[in-house]
């Protein structure tokens, strides 16, 4: 077929609408850029690769004022280059990238909790959204920014969801499913500022007891465990019976700061003894009511429901139990070093977030000391 000067606007305007694209001069051996005339006033750009007797086509996009011949030519060259480098993700969508990220996590040992959390986040706000159907090769900053602006989420929840999405997209870049230049779409985006409010809500003794009363079964055990140890949720839900030594009253927790073995207070020792009764060393201490392990964020809505039933503030979450433990421990006379070791954090972090409480606690201890 005769090559058409599709680089000229006047020529494109005179073409008759048809399904088969009008092909311009070859860009390189077996590489062509075409123009499909849709109707009298519009058209789209198509790239074609001939290899081993087969033809592969790639839709590049509609012709617009900002996507003319020069832009289509650049997009076609990029597509040919990516194929030559073995990239196979030219038709991969954002949803597909998220699915593959979850699958990749599940193929790794000890990543089921993270995979479950990411999967649920993607199902809620990515997969069925306009962003989910965008091909990675076409992904631009405005796609993600529009998605961010349209979400009705707290800044903290949005930040966690975006972190999971970014990890999924970065995985595709590392695996060379798409070129690294696409990663510009998810850099330097405008995210709402996250205020660290989770450490500002303190539950007093009456409120803590009300929360426990409102919770039942495995949820109550998890909340009580957090209130009595100040542990992070993941440290409790991943804890095995073998980590608990009922004879010495010691418990070994494993979390993001590593392993730590700490003594349990009498109420916590009673709780852990009950939870470990009749279980094997490899069984989880804290389980859901169906006997299965807690997956990440399984407890979020359940805690909110219990907090609402107990008449507690709307921003009560499981982490509030950790904050309440640390606050109560410091005000009760434990040193910052003791508290830091018990909850698995550093002294600077304790002083940064609980510094206002330390002088009051020190003053109370000083009052009990006879210096002269």
What does this protein structure show overall?
This protein has 372 residues and is of the alpha+beta class. The chain folds into 3 domains: 76 residues, Double Stranded RNA Binding Domain; 93 residues; 168 residues, Intergrase catalytic core (hpI Integrase, Chain A, Orthogonal Bundle), CATH 1.10.443. Helix content is 45%, strand content 11%. The strands form 2 sheets. Strands 1-2-3-4 form a 4-stranded antiparallel β-sheet, with helices on one face. Strands 5-6-7 form a 3-stranded antiparallel β-sheet. Strand 3 and strand 4 form a beta hairpin. The N and C termini lie far apart (106 Å). The mean pLDDT is 87.
Give a brief rundown of this model.
The chain has helices spanning 9-14, 69-84, 94-107, 112-125, 141-150, 155-174, 205-214, 217-229, 233-237, 266-276, 300-309, 318-331, 336-343, 347-354, 358-366, and strands spanning 22-23, 31-37, 43-51, 54-62, 244-245, 250-255, 258-263.
